[in-house]
Write a structure and sequence with these properties.
disordered N terminus; 2 domains; 325 residues; Ferritin; mainly alpha
Length: 325
């Protein structure tokens, strides 16, 4: 909150000096965001890092221009006012929410930032009747529009089609190694390894609640075990598989979900209804695993289907035979 202000101010209540101060602080924040993106990408995506470095320099140029305008019109002291002080003003997402989501998300976020800034200045210019204020805000809108065009030119300069293609392939590979591969391993482990105990208990007791509790325990236990195993097995430094924490979360969560998929139907009191639904869920899970293997791991679909469906069928049969015996 701004000292002396009882609450967040509405944009319509800001005077010309406050609007200019808000623009200055916003340009400064955006330059920091672009530099953070550049630093995050520099090792793996140097061409995109150059784009964000250049965009940060452009933001600095705009900020210096705005400060000069403020100095000429209002003097040296710039009021402390930021986005969070103004109700309804567009907000930037915390940088850590974006920088962990990959290259394409950063590019999309940067594009959205430029559009939001330009729209803000144009809306502000249209909302004022003072000629000087309207001209000032119009100039700022034009500057943001030029910045957007400049961003496109920078992308063409530093990120040609070949470089972008290489970076996109590297980003896809990193996504597969960090999220898809451990998640798929977890889904396979959770879906297949829990089949035997769940259906063995189901056919041995024909008690849906007991079967559900066994399935819940097996799924959660397998998820915790799989997650910790993934974290401890590889720190990702030499293998390039990415953060062990991310891989552990992917493996643990998908393992748990894989087991819960055919445990949850046993919340239904009727044994045969629950078992029929659980079998359908198992069928869907196994085909989903085969599809993921084909889509992301480039495993031929027939081979993936044979491996997963046959393996799952054998484990399922073992559980039914043990429980029914």
């Amino acid at each position: 909150m701004i000292p002396g202000f009882a609450s967040r101010r509405r944009f319509s209540d800001l005077n010309e000096q406050e609007i200019l101060a808000l623009a200055i602080s916003s340009e400064e924040d955006d330059a920091r965001i672009y530099r953070t993106y550049a630093e995050r990408l520099r090792a793996d995506f140097p061409s995109s890092a150059e784009v964000f470095d250049a965009m940060a320099v452009e933001e600095d140029t705009h900020r210096h221009w705005l400060i000069e305008r403020h100095r000429k019109r209002f003097g040296e002291v710039i009021p402390l006012i930021r986005r969070e002080h103004v109700a309804g003003f567009y907000a930037r997402r915390p940088v850590w929410l974006v920088e962990n989501l990959g290259l394409e998300r950063m590019r999309a976020e940067a594009e959205a930032m430029e559009h939001e800034a330009e729209a803000f200045y144009r809306r502000a210019a249209a909302a004022t009747s003072d000629a000087d204020t309207r001209k000032l805000l119009g100039d700022l809108a034009a500057a943001e529009a030029k910045h957007g065009n400049r961003a496109g030119e920078l992308s063409e300069t530093h990120l040609d089609a070949e470089a972008k293609g290489e970076e996109d392939r590297a980003a896809h590979r990193q996504f597969v190694l960090t999220w898809v591969q451990p998640g798929l391993a977890g889904l396979m482990d959770g879906s297949v390894s829990t089949l035997a105990p769940i259906f063995a208990v189901a056919f041995a007791t024909q008690d849906t609640w007991t079967t559900f509790l066994v399935g819940l325990a097996a799924s959660v236990g397998a998820g915790i075990s799989m997650g910790f195993t993934e974290v401890a097995s590889d720190d990702g430094v030499l293998s390039g598989r990415g953060s062990p924490m991310k891989r552990g979360i992917a493996a643990g969560v998908m393992t748990t979900l894989g087991g819960l998929g055919h445990a949850l139907p046993y919340l239904i009191p009727d044994f045969w209804v629950a078992t029929t639904i659980a079998m359908i869920v198992v069928f869907v899970e196994l085909w989903a695993i085969a599809w993921i293997q084909n889509r992301y791991m480039e495993t031929p679909f027939l081979r993936a289907t044979f491996q997963v469906v046959l393996g799952g069928a054998l484990v399922f049969a073992a559980g039914v035979l043990i429980g029914g015996g």
